[in-house]
Structure formats: C-alpha cells, structure tokens
Amino acid sequence: MQYPSESRIMLAIDCCIFGFDGENLKILLIKRNFEPEMGKWSLMGGFLKSTEDLEDGAKRILKDLTGLDNIYMEQLNSYGNINRDPVERTVSICFFALINIQEHDIEEAKSKNGYWFDFNKKPELIFDHDQMVEKALSQIRYKAALHPIGFELLPEKFTIPQLQKLYEAIYGTTLDRRNFSRKILSTKLLIDTGEKNENSSTKKAALFKLDQAKYESQFNAFHYFVNL
Amino acid sequence: MQYPSESRIMLAIDCCIFGFDGENLKILLIKRNFEPEMGKWSLMGGFLKSTEDLEDGAKRILKDLTGLDNIYMEQLNSYGNINRDPVERTVSICFFALINIQEHDIEEAKSKNGYWFDFNKKPELIFDHDQMVEKALSQIRYKAALHPIGFELLPEKFTIPQLQKLYEAIYGTTLDRRNFSRKILSTKLLIDTGEKNENSSTKKAALFKLDQAKYESQFNAFHYFVNL
DNA sequence: TTATAAATGTGTTAATATTACACAATTGTT
DNA sequence: AACAATTGTGTAATATTAACACATTTATAA
Predict the structure, then answer these.
(1) B225 domain-assigned
(2) From the CA of B176, how many Å to the C1' of D12?
(3) What is the CATH number of the domain that holds B173?
(4) Is-cis flag, bond preceding A36, omega within 30?
(5) Distance between the two ends of chain B, CA-based, in angstroms?
(6) Domain containing residue A26
(7) Could you say which residues of chain A have pLDDT below 70?
(8) Residue-wise pLDDT tens digits, A23-63
C-alpha cells in the first residue's frame, strides 16, 4: 500500500554550524563546486536518504562534510517555498550545530572548500540560507540566555572571562564582568579545576569545567544567564 | 534539470490546534475514517502539495478541516523516523495553532469527526502524534511565558481573571491574583474597554482588549508574563 | 629589581522586581 | 439587609539585578 503520489518531494538537510575562536562567533560555510550556484557560498547540506531518520541524516551530513561526530545539534526549522531551489521543488529541514573549534579539527571540511567566517563578515549565501542563518542566530540567542548551550562552543576547560566573551559575541553587547561571574557561578554548573590558563600575559584566570552530571540533569531548567 | 531521485519522500503536515473554554486547555482531534489506523484519533493533517509553500499548505489544511482561516499558527518541528507511518516513509512537518473557541465555530471540523478534548483527557493518538502534542505544549508554555500569544486563545474582549485562568491552565498551576494583574497591566498591552463582563453572578470584571498596535510592535519583546 | 599596565577575583550599595499577604467594593442570592 | 463569591487595589518583606571600587596577579619595560 502507498499513498497517492501527489506529493513526493526532495528533502534536503542544511546545517548552520557555529564556532567561537575566543573573540568572534564563527560560521562554517562551504564554497559550492557544483551546479546550481557553483562558486557561491552555502551552508553545509545534503539530501535525506530514504533509509535514515532526520537526526541521523543530519549527523551523517555533518560527519561527511566535517569529519566530526558527537556534536551538539538541534532541529531549527523547515523551509519549503516553492521556488527556493531553482533546480526542483525541495523542502529543506535546517539544523544548527555548535562546535568547539579549539579541540576539533575540520581538515575534512577544509578539503571540501569549507571555511570558517566571522559571523559578522559572512558573504551572501545561496537560496534561502541567509534566512536560515538569521533564524539560527536568533534561536541561539534565545536558548543561550536560558539554557547552558554556550559551553558547547568552548574547550573542555575554560575561564569565566572566556565564557563572558562568548556571551558578548553571541549578543553583540558587553556585560559587567563582576555581575556575569556571580551569575554563572551561582548556577553551580562549573567546577574549578584548580588549574590556571597559562596563555595569558597578565593574571592567569582559573580554568573551570562543566559539572557534567548537573549539566545533563538541569539542561531544561532555566538559568537566566543573560536577561533577554 | 533534476536532482538524482534518491530521496523524494511523502511530506505531510500535521497541526496541533489548541483552544480554551474558560476552564481548560482544549485540543482539536479528529477520528480517522480511513486507513491506516481507521477509528483512532489523530491530529488534523494532510499532505503538502507540490504547488504550495509550507505555510500555505498548513493554512489550507486548517481551512479544509475546520473552515477557519486567519488563525495564529507557528511551525513547530519536523518528524521523520523511518517507520513513523506504516504505509510509506513520510516526513511530517508539525504546526501548532491557537484559536479562540468562543468566537469561532468549527462546524466544518465537527462534520468531519473533529472534536474538542480537554487537553488532560485526550486519548492516545496515532503514529508519533502524542510526541508532537507534547512538544507543542512545551513550546506554548515556553512562548506564552515570554510573549503575548495567550491572547490568541481568548475572545476579543476578556477580563483579567479570564486571562489568569488561561495561564493557570497552560501551566497547570495557580497564580496570585494580585501579582498577576499587576504584571499583566504593567505591559500596557491592554486597553480597558469600559465595559463589564455581564456573565457573572458576583462583581463584574472589567473587559479589556488588546492594544493591537502595541501588540504587533512588541511581539518579539520579552514580557515575562510568568516566570519559568 | 622595581614600576607599570593589563587582566582577574571579590565586596558593597542602591535600584528594581518579586512575593506574600489584607482589606474594601460590587453584585446576585437568601 | 445580610451573605457569599468574586474583583480591584495597596503595602511590606524578600530576592534579584545593576552599578560601581579596590586589591591581586603576572609579563614586560624601565
């Protein structure tokens, strides 16, 4: 038994991949070496296979294009305007992913014309990918204000000033150092490793790591890291 | 030109439709009169046509099944587990809609076996529709705490106690009358119509309406109607 | 070796928001 | 006219946020 064939449609998966280099929010883009829109920049993407679940498809595409797995990933939204893809009617399900640049090489992505852009200096993208990126940023802003997703963008051990710079990059603003520190520590999600950040030419900041158990059990609690 | 045909897939649209009867949160379900799963309850749904955008498809399906248009509607999430539909691999894009029960008849839906259930007394649904409903409720809770979407479930003119009952139904909790009133009024989103709610056997509450202009301009601002 | 600049860590106070509660007013019913 | 139910508004205690100051650490330059 099958449904009437009125509506079988190409299903794409696109993925907004974010990183953080310590100063700026970064986004991983790929220069297309195939038609249509060859030579232009786009998000990482591919087609969903008929044998895989959505999340598996998204993971496969991320793995194929960047070599990475075990990455924070979340479904964002679907895009299906009739003419969004000039080749053929295609609906795209967009995901966003957060990766820790310092500890993950993306050789694989680079070999495929992948490149990290400063978020604020990214080129214009194909199709409706700019719309996807805008939505992804707004979702990250929304979520990072209330839930501890920011840590996904940092190395395993990080300092509070590094965390603050990340939040400042996400929200394009500056935060008060003292109030930020107090707020973050009050969540009790951080464990002081006792180590210091040696890459500093002034006072070396304390290195913290996530309390993994608390992180997982409280992920859906509300922390108000930043007031919206 | 076309893409290789590896992945053309049936695309369904399902819609969680919420209402409020003054006491309980309601959800509109439909008893299937076709296979598969004939006789069981499901969300309102249909297949996306190749000639329509996603949002247009969702609106069309809502209109076809309930006779309603101009309804608050938002894309929720997509579901694509391989075996979610026993007939054939189908990906469903789920929307949720909020409708004002008192002022909108759903004759059309009733004629198609549609029925309003108390949210807390709904039957088990087909496929992964229970998962969709759970996600929809959590999205409504999330959003209604921060943005003025609750008003979509109320008649044009409503009292503050009515609004409070709605919030209490959404969150399954009770709120302090005095604090709630103060918080709502502090948003300046409500205009006192000068009229009173005549359907009351005690003190008649003041009827308010939304300040439409402020509502639209501040929709994406944060109001913290309820603390999460 | 000492002074300096840059960055980190912590404390304090004022302003604001939230919570918890009490009393007066309205209206149909007894 | 008394009563019960519900609405409208005020106020004090508590908690949170925002604004700001000073002491400490460390590489570098004097």
Answers:
(1) no
(2) 17
(3) 1.10.10.10
(4) yes
(5) 50
(6) 10-146
(7) none
(8) 999 999 999 988 889 999 999 999 999 999 999 999 999 99
